[in-house]
Amino acid sequence: MTTPTQAPASENTAEGHIDPAARLADRRQPGIPESDSFVPVQTRSERPTSFDPGDFGTPTGTEVNWKHTPLKKLAALFVDEPAPHGVIDVAVRAPEDVEQSRLAVGEAPRGEVFRPEDLPSAIAWAQEAEAPLVRIPADVELDEPIVVHLTGRGGVAHAHVVIEAQPHSRGTVILRHEGTAQQAQNVEIIVRDGASLTVVSVQRWDDDAIHLASHQARVDRDASLTHVVVSLGGGIVRVNPSVELAGAGADGKLYGLAFSDSGQHLESQVYLHHKGPHTVGDVLYKGALQGAGARTVWIGDVLIGPDATGTDSYEANRNLVLTEGARADSIPNLEIETGDIVGAGHASATGRFDDEQLFYLQARGIAEDEARRLVVLGFLAEIVQKLDIPDLQDELIAAIEAELALTDSITADAAEASTEASA
User: C-alpha distances in angstroms, 143 versus 36, 192, 260, 388?
Assistant: First the structure.
């Protein structure tokens, strides 16, 4: 269906829209009954995209991109209805050189990169009549970060944000999320030739908040993007970054940190597409979990396309389970369509404390609780240290320390319960 503010379907198709019905038809084998020939979409590169929410059915949990997510709690974000305004207060702190405006559907550069991959993302696209644009002008180097502070007041909210770094600019954008809301958020990131951009998304929501975010970025010739996801708060937080290294010499660094407490679900589905030649990719996500029902999900997809000669790429996910009852799912995937690369690899590991590390510290007079704290802090600090933002580094280290204090409490309660049971 075409609306007054929606580009015609033919235009969307020309720009990269994939009709889901056509995609499914292409995947059916001739001469075989439809029910027997259907092959589900498995890889990130094959997922259908559409600007029309009507092209996506309500997720059932059988879809590859939804099967790890607790769908029952997300029902409000699967409804294509206008949400009230004022659910989230937005405050922007930016240097004078930064340009800010609002973009209607069809107004460039909105939609230059972004293609909704699921129902909440398509709803957010359609419901955000005017998307805020944050632009760093060409050849401008910012001395301080742009901070977008979002504070939820409760209710359903939709958002589409466009961040553009024009040629040979340099800067950092921090998205900070606090309070409570049920939000479907799109973030469209464009890094022009020779630009260098860092985007950090920090989730410190209240315990009942739900945050579904789709970040999509394109990095052009000799440009670089550092994208960081930090998820500490929220009941369900799902941030899915998709980065296309489109230009020759493009560089993409995708880092993530998650600390999941009891009953908390923190998820990221990462997609890094090496499209241009001589591109470099580095993906590292780390998670810590504590308490009954604590859950993290990480799915990492790397595609090295047929023209991405000279690519150097690596992705890894590491998880540290601190208490009983926590679960971490980690699924790395790698597709290579050219043999002319520098290197490519992936790794995944989930485990408990390293007993040798604990023994080493305790042998030097450090108490067990303090030794555990140092091991976890050292494990997660690797991601924090990749942020060249001292104030934010200090804040995150303090937040991790607070989480570790809760670990001590959970461990003590478990020990007490075990003692009482044995008595």
Answer: 59, 19, 33, 12
